[in-house]
Amino acid sequence: MSQQNIPVILLKEGTNRTRGKEAQKNNIRAAMAMAEAVKSTLGPKGSDKMLIDGLGDVVITNDGATILDEIDVEHPAAKLMAQVAKTQDDQVGDGTTSAVILAGQLLKNADDLIELGIHPSIIVSGYKKALAKASEVLKSIAIDIDTADKKILGKVASTALNSKIVSAEKSLMSKISTDAVLQITEERDGKKIADIDWIKIVQKAGKSLKDTSLINGVVLDKEVVHPGMPKSISGAKIALIDENIEIQKTEFSAEIKIEETSQMQAFLDREQEMIEEMVELIIKSGANVLVCQKGIDDLAQHFLAKQGVLAVRRVKKSDMEKLSRATGGSIVSTIKDLKKEDLGIAGKVEQFKIGDDDNVLFSEAKNPRSVTILIRGGSKYITDEAERSIHDALCVVRDAIEDGQIVAGGGASEVEIAMELRHLAESTGGREQLAIEKFADAMEVIPKTLAENAGIDAIDILTEIRTKHSTKGNSVFGLDLFKGKVNDLEKAGIIEPLRVKSQAIRSAAEAAELILRIDDVIAAKSKPGGMPGGMPGGMPPGMGM
Ligand SMILES: Nc1ncnc2c1ncn2[C@@H]1O[C@H](COP(=O)(O)OP(=O)(O)OP(=O)(O)O)[C@@H](O)[C@H]1O
Ligand SMILES: [Mg+2]
User: How far is the CA of 419 from the centre of ligand 1 (A)?
Assistant: First the structure.
């Protein structure tokens, strides 16, 4: 045997390796299956999905990121698509379904070119040029808005809510979302910043979606700990404590020998004294309201009640932080360090009922940028989905306020981009031209899918939008699904933040590039009981939707 023919073994036995075209096809198919899974949910006429996990818990939703997060996929390329949706959700809050559908279509079209013998690296470089151009086109057709105009912001919120199960109440929901975001918006260095973490969302099944409301202040779903405490305090000075207000139990078992009853009494007295001292320190700081992240024992509650303090215990860390920001108080981790300056300020703290449950509202806080959205609805499924939908609405209003720019929805922007890309393709020439054309075709999957999901002929609609766009100044014409025809969507108020569109296209193109560059998949042998690391040959499981 000549030296050249001696096989060199690099990989461990059991390693699964797929290479070249096979690896590419495999990844592309898995990514396309993910896009197929969410395609039917796109747009106002899209349907919803019911997802049931291993424990039987049910989620009913239309939200792309939620669907892809809930379905447990195994294929690495499918996981990457779920990641695209998550990134889109984290960064801009809406457009997750669009991003995934676009990525799937970009890959499908790339696959056609691979079949024609075009190398993936040529496709990748064509797609890169197309993405740069698409971003440029989007900027050029973006419309500046008055970021204080509630009507326009409400329309942006409405468009995001159109596709949601809760859209029957979209006028109320969009008004609440707009008001909430405007209230927390601040100006820093001449720029508007809307940090939606300021907005607390509380949901409680009962009544109906119509009873959803915006509350000025922070609501804690907790009750005042002791019946002898006041239920309402004006001019509240609030201590925010992150320490147990009780005698610490030792972690090891200790034995205390008590020989006389008087010793026993002395021991109990000492315990009581220690609790009294803790309460005294709180009173001395000037606090009349106590919010504790940990426990408050019975004795401490009794002393606090005697002193007229309103106290709440076992408050979530995130709520402690919201209260700290709203009232200007600092969270103190040892009571000994509590000072007057650490106390938060609120005009009013009061217990109130939502349904049968007690809650505590902190209102007229030092910082007016603190609001709570209280979601009501017939069942937990509804309030859960309402929360996800309101989250989308809050995000798009934020995006619109921070950037001050919107584009038309209903596929209008995608058709405009496609048209400009076809011009770019012509002037590019060569094999890259084909890739840019395929990118252009992929953009049109959005209007096509919007039409298909509504049972409207997609080809007719697409041709009509293209014809409109061939006249300059018509980039806002798209599919109006309320009218069932092509319309001026800026006038119709079907508008989206520029940020949502540009991010969706960018994430889709980047995911497609990443997948196209892979020509070798080396998967370690799966460990018994662990996640199978091998490349599944076909579609990811659970994709038969
Ligand atoms: N009245 C309408 N007519 C036509 N298109 C609309 C209308 N309202 C919204 N759309 C379009 O629906 C699409 C958004 O659909 P949807 O909200 O289901 O998906 P997404 O925003 O991509 O993802 P997700 O909301 O799940 O994160 C956008 O293209 C938007 O322009
Ligand atoms: Mg949406």
Answer: 21
